[in-house]
Amino acid sequence: MLRILIFIKKLCFSHYKCVILHVNFEYRMKKNVLITLLAVILFSGCANEFNRLLQSRDTAYKYESAKQYFAMGKFNQAASLLQDVVTVQKGRSTAQESLYMLALAEYNNRDYESASQTFKKYFSSYPKGEYAEQAAFYIGQSLYESVPEPRLDQTPTVGAINAYQTFIDYFPDSKLRETAQERLFKLQDNLVQKEYLSAKLYYNLGGYFGNINAGTESNYEACIITAQNALKTYPYTSKREDFSVLIMKSKYYLAKNSSEGKKVERYRDAEDECYGFLTEFPDSKDAPLAQEFIEKCKKITKD
């Protein structure tokens, strides 16, 4: 009898716990639904308010609202309003500020292409304006943020380099000069790396003829031309030794794969290249290879 009573008590307590858990679950669910509904209503209200702003013809109101959105970090909304405002602001005291703010909003919104164009528009319109120095810097900075990896087309890199150089020329005493100079050098390294990868690709293709361009006899010759041009353009690059190794190797294998009529002349050229390499880089890890090539070249050139 006692066991039965204990069992009934446990059963009732378990049922009580289930009821409490169910009530708590329902409460949490209703609370979450309520929060979601409030968020939807609030968002809808904000969206409707923003749409009314966009359709408003009150330029001053739109401009002040854009400034508030910008201050809150809502750069997409600020940019949308400012795009309407800047066309009307020309000739007004707020024209400069509105155009510069639009450029900053686009930049902070990571629309770097639009930002670079808007900063450029500001600098060309107000070369001595209140924000001219910052705008000139951010033309390059916007392009810098969109620079691709070295293997890809480097047109944005060239644009950023030119923009930073223009900034340095116009504002040589600017506090931003050092930053611009550092990034300019970094971007030049990207161009050097691009040329190095191209030269190395030609070298790796070696005797393959499927990609030979007009004016070059082989991939080795294309490698030599690419590497030499890079050294002329960037004589102080940190990759000077790497380019020189590619030139040396390519000249040797170009000679080795040449027709009999060209072999001796090209082996002499390869030998001279090896001597030049050893003179410039006597402690290079590729110095033994240069010496090996010299010995092989001599077997052909001494006859």
3D structure, described in words:
The protein is mostly helical and 303 residues long. The chain is 78% helix and 0% strand. It contains twelve helices and no strands. α2 runs antiparallel to α3 and α4 runs antiparallel to α5. The N terminus is likely disordered.
Arithmetic mean of pLDDT: 84
The percent range for helix content is over 70%
Shape: elongated
Compute the separation of the termini in Å. Answer: 120 Å
Structural class computed from helices and strand pairing = mainly alpha
Uncertain spans: 1-46
Order of secondary-structure elements: HHHHHHHHHHHH
Q: What kind of sheet is the major sheet?
A: none
* Count of helical stretches: 12
Short summary of the structure?
The chain is built from 12 helices and no strands. The protein has 303 residues and is an all-alpha fold. The relative contact order is 0.04.
